[in-house]
Amino acid sequence: MKKIIILITLLIHCLTFSQTATKSQENRSNMITSYVIEKLELNKENADFFRKVHLFQIVDNALKIKESNATSAEEKRVIYRKGYENLKAKLSEKMGNKKALAILRTANEARTKQ
Question: For the chain, which residues make up each domain, given as ranges?
Answer without folding.
Answer: 21-113
